Task: structure prediction
Amino acid sequence: MSGLKQYLKDTWQGIWTVLVGMKVTFKHLFVPAVTIQYPDVKINLPERARNRLYVNMDDCIGCDQCARACPVDCIEIETVKSIPGEDLGLTSNGKKKALWVTKFNIDIAKCCYCQLCVFPCPTECIYMTDVYEFSEYERENLVYKFATLTEEEAEEKKRNYEKYMAEKEAQKTAAAKTKTEQPKTGDNK
Amino acid sequence: MYDILYNILGNQVVAWIIAAALPLFVFILPFALFAVWLERKVSAHMQDRLGPMRVGWHGVLQTIADIIKLIQKEDIIPAEADKKLFNLAPVLVFAGSYAAFAAIPFSSKYIGSNAEVGIFYVIAVSSFVVVGILMGGWASNNKYALLGAMRSAAQIVSYEIPSAIVILTMVMLTGTLSLDKFSQMQTAYFWNWFILGGPGSGITKFLLIPFMIVGFTILYISTLAEVNRTPFDIPEAESELVAGYHTEYSGMKFAMFFLAEYGNMFAVSAIITLLFFGGYQSPFGYLGNTFKLPWLVPIEQVFWFTGKGIFFVFVQMWLRWTLPRLRVDQLMHLCWKFLIPYSFVNLIIVGFITLFR
Ligand code: SF4
Ligand code: SF4
Result:
C-alpha cells in the first residue's frame, strides 16, 4: 500500500514541480530584458576605461618616454633636432619644444591597453580615449600615424638639420684648422 | 473544401490540386514562419533577453530572411550516405506532418477531408514521420544521426500508446471518430467543452471533469514527446548528439525537417483543441449570430481554432524553456510506468461513467 502511496505522491510532485517551474518562467516573460541594442544603444563606459590611444601632437616634445615604457614596443618615435632660429612653440604646460617629431606610429594591433605609456609622459599628451570600435580589414591600417609633419616636411627638417650639422662641422674644422695653424705661428716666434 | 472548389471550377484535377495545396500555403508555411519567430521571442523573453530585433518590427521578418538564407545554401550530401534514402527522408517527414492537416477541421466550412475516421487517420498518418526520421538517420551514415533516429523511433512508438488510449477514451465517451463531430458536440459556450465534462448536465458532467483533466494532461505530455519537443527532445539533444537525425542535412532539406517539426507542433495542438477544448467553437457564442451575419461565423471559427492551437503551441514553447531534458531511461520510465497506467485507469473509469450515464 505504501508503494501505491509513494507512486501517487511522486506523480503529484512531478506535476506540481513542473507548474512551479512554469510559474517562474512565466514571470520572467514580463521582466524587462537586460539586452542592450548595441550599435544603437551603448552603455556608458566605466571611468578609466582603456581603449584606443590618442596623442595630441601639439604637446608632444618627442622625449620618447612613452616608447620606452611600452612593454610590447608598439610605439615608434623618430625625432630630428631643430636648428637654431626655428621656433617650435610651447607645450600647454609651458615647456619649450626642441625636437621635430618626424615619426610617431602606434601599432594598435599590438597594443595591450596597459596604459603604461600614459604615465611617464611629461606633457600628458598621450592618453586613452573612449573609442573602441576600430576594426579594420587590413592589419596595416591599425598602425596609427600621429606625426603632424608630412613626409616632405620631415625630409626637409632632416635635410635642414644635416645641412646645419654639416655647416657646423665645416665651421668646426675650419676653426680647428685655424687653431692648429696658430700654434705653428706661435712656435715660429 | 474539394466539393466547393469543384463546384466553382468545374474541373476535378484543378480543384483537387488547389484543395491539397491550400493548407500548405495558407496555413502551414505562414504558421511555421510565425512559430519560429514566436519561439525565439518566447525563449528570449523568458531568459530576459530580447531575441531577434533587427529585421522588421521586433524581428518579425527574421524567419523570412532565414528561409531565404537556407534556400541559398549548398545542398550537401555526405559521400558515404545512401543518396536515395537521404533525399527521400525529409520529404517523408514533411509529408507525414502535412498529411495530418488534411483531416483537421479549421471551421465548419473548411475541412480538407471530412472523413468519418478523422482522428484515427491522424494517429495513423502522424506515425509516418517515424519512418522518415529513421530513414534520414540511417541514410546519413553518421553515428549521431543514427542514434538520434533510433531514440526518436523508440520514443514516438512508446508515447503513441498513452496518447492512443486517451483518444480511445474520448472516442468511447462520444461515440464518434470524426473530428468535425467532436467539434460540433462542444458547441455554444465553453462549459460544453470536454475538458469541463462535455455537453449535457447532471451529475455525470461533474463526475467527468477530473478524469478529463487527467486525460488532457496525459495527452498533452505524450504528444509533446511525439513531436520531439523539450523535455522530450533526446532525439536531437544538441549536447550529446550534435543535432540528432538531421545532423547531416543542410539547406532546404534541413528546412523541411524544421517546417515539419513546427507543422507537427500545430497538428498535435489542434488535436488537443479538438478533443478537449471545443475545436473550432467559440467559447462565448458568435458575433455573426448576434448581428445576423451568417458568413462571419466560419471566419470566427477559424480565428478561435487557430487561436487555441497557437495557445497550446505557446505552452509547448513555455515548457521547453522551463524544463531540462530527460534522460533516455527517465523518458521510458515516465511513459511506461506513469502515463500508460494512468491512462488505463482513466479509460476504465470514464468507461464506467459512460455506461451509467
Ligand atoms: S597602452 Fe601599453 S601596450 Fe599600448 S602603447 Fe601604451 S604602453 Fe604600449
Ligand atoms: S612621452 Fe609624451 S611627450 Fe614624450 S614622446 Fe611620448 S607622447 Fe610625446
Residues 12-46 of chain B form the longest helix (35 residues). The mean pLDDT of chain B is 81. Chain B touches chain A at residues 42, 44-50, 53, 217, 318-319, 321-323, 338, 342 (CB under 8 Å).
